[in-house]
Design a protein that fits this description.
The structure is a homodimer of 338-residue chains. By secondary structure, chain A is an alpha/beta fold. Chain A has eleven helices and 15 strands. In chain A, strands 1-2-10-15-14-11-12 form a seven-stranded mixed β-sheet, with helices on both faces. Chain A has a six-stranded mixed β-sheet with strand order 4-3-9-7-5-6, sandwiched between helices. The first copy, chain A, has a two-stranded parallel ribbon with strand order 8-13. In chain A, strand 5, helix 3 and strand 6 form a beta-alpha-beta unit. Chain A is globular and about 55 Å long. Chains A, B: Pfam families: SpoVAD.
């Protein structure tokens, strides 16, 4: 046996894989936000040179993987495995971005939790010796998401105060056996949690209970407390969802305090950039992890973080049919030393 | 290290997980086909008691998991992990079917290769000691697929000779550390292969090159030949895709001969049931594996089979945009003895 089970949901990875390289790509709006210095590439062309928004989304994923592979000095065809997924119907963003890589491929669907799901899975597979170098990546594009999930852009639909803005961006990590670090040391697989929220313009509220469930499981099964982490990073709960998460955790006697950072809450200056409750989309937590978070770890500012991206697993069809929104959240501990 | 890498794509699983239980569910048309005796449950209600086709799809997945768990004498909440995915936008069929299980969940998108992707991943995780009992399942529903991928049922659209009929059905396997068998001994992860086929009514042709690529990788990396298997089972190439696969393999000097069985070609009596080139959909290979294939292994008819489901990774949007169809195929060796 390889993986050490700390509990039903959490594994301790003894052969902790390292993040040997990472890259983030962002669109213009994200490039004007507070994290602008952390992106490797900011496109001044929202179309990324393509004719359709779906192709643009594939292009930004492709660009991001190329940058990460360049930093790791590995060609895509040298990777043992690529794990990806996205929000587009049938995860077409990833499939079309990666069809020419020639690398073994596992497609995931975890909505905006995809970066966490891919990171956890890639880390487990390396820990188990099933692969040496694995690329995990995901992204999203405001324009492809808007027309698929909400309204045609041309409508100029108004947004509710709880709504979030889909990030145009992507993040890619190259995970490698033996490092260099930061290392992935403990991973917690989430459960689907549906508390009955039906408002598709309030994803933060739908996902917060899943974040709470997974964070509690992580703390319980690892015997760690929030204080053991320099930062506890959720994916894209936004301002609304982050407040709800704090309330839910408080009811369980857990306080994250100032060490909580939500990628959706920090990627934009919500007031100045008019994004209401913050950012969302697979590319939100992916680009913030691949850029800002890992930068803070490499600089020594943070030595241990818990990264927990959240996803809302509904579809436009289920929303139209009056269904509530199931959420999910996976978590991974990243540490500079093992 | 746990997993033994036989090559870039293939792992040897020393702690080979066993298929401790399996269940298959089918709709009426499938229940009138040649494999009717192999399904655990055949519904005489295409709606599975639900008001929408999407809910019907979730209901059939739920039913299938319940049957498999019943046979394994495990409650869903006792599972360490559930791995699932489907063809519906945002894989909503699986998320809504499984949201009440309370079990850790990994969502996949592999189109009609989902059963293979889930089977391989679940097996690797058990081999690595990351889980003891894992449910892998997937399904599809003719009516939800038809309106999402093709035309509203009410149009009564004509079908081309190469078209396939989406199976209403599901299959679930409970994988358990230590068995009992049949066991999963070798798994091969596929690469995305796109040979430029653009006809969404000819998925068999789009997927056959991926099947060829993965089967060749499996034989090459394991040092095995087709003759080492009692049956080499592809997912849903249908009659057209199966003929193309035979040609592609022949060009590489490989002949499967009579040991090739394609789930899409055997689940219906194509002429009598008017399904043109055969069956397709995640539920096709899943229900045939969970029923007919495992039955033949348990009865001793087959001792060693290679199961390789194929998926077409396009979406209706990419087809409308004139894109070709990327295919993928993953393969697993199932053996009665290890």
């Amino acid at each position: 046996m390889c993986a050490k089970r700390l509990g039903r949901q959490t594994l301790l990875l003894d052969n902790a894989p390292g993040v040997s390289a990472s890259a983030s790509v962002a669109g213009g709006k994200e490039g004007e936000g507070p994290l602008k210095r952390s992106f490797d590439f900011i496109s001044d062309d929202a179309r990324f040179g393509e004719k359709s928004w779906e192709r643009s989304e594939s292009a930004l994923l492709k660009k991001c993987l190329a940058l990460a592979c360049g930093k790791a000095q590995l060609a895509p065809e040298e990777l043992d495995l690529i794990i990806s997924g996205d929000l587009l119907n049938q995860c077409a963003g990833s499939a079309y971005a990666l069809r020419e890589t020639g690398a073994p491929y596992l497609g995931l669907y975890g909505a905006c939790s995809t970066m966490s799901e891919a990171l956890n899975l890639g880390s487990i597979l390396i820990d188990a010796g099933a692969a040496q170098n694995v690329a995990v990546l995901t992204g999203s594009h405001f324009c492809s998401a808007e027309r698929q999930f909400r309204f045609p852009l041309e409508y100029g639909a108004l947004r509710t105060p709880t709504s979030q803005w889909t990030v145009t961006g992507a993040g890619a990590l190259i995970l490698s056996a033996g490092g260099p670090g930061p290392y992935v040391t403990r991973v917690t697989t989430g459960r689907i949690v549906d508390m009955g929220v039906k408002d598709a313009s309030n994803m933060g509220a739908a996902m917060a209970p899943a974040a709470c469930d997974t964070l509690l499981a992580h703390f319980r099964e690892t015997g760690r407390a929030p204080e053991d982490y320099d930062a506890v990073i959720t994916g894209d709960l936004g301002l609304t969802g982050s407040a709800i998460l704090a309330e839910l955790l408080a009811a369980e006697g857990v306080a994250l305090g100032a060490r909580h950072m939500d990628c959706g809450s920090v990627i934009y200056d919500a007031k100045r950039q008019g994004v209401r409750s913050g950012g969302s989309g697979c590319g939100c937590s992916a680009s913030v992890l691949a850029g800002y978070v890992l930068e803070n770890m490499r600089s020594g500012l943070w030595r241990r973080v818990l990264f927990a991206a959240t996803g809302a697993l509904m579809s436009p069809t289920t929303s139209q049919q009056g269904e509530s929104i199931p959420g999910i959240c996976h978590a991974a501990a990243l540490e500079t030393e093992v």
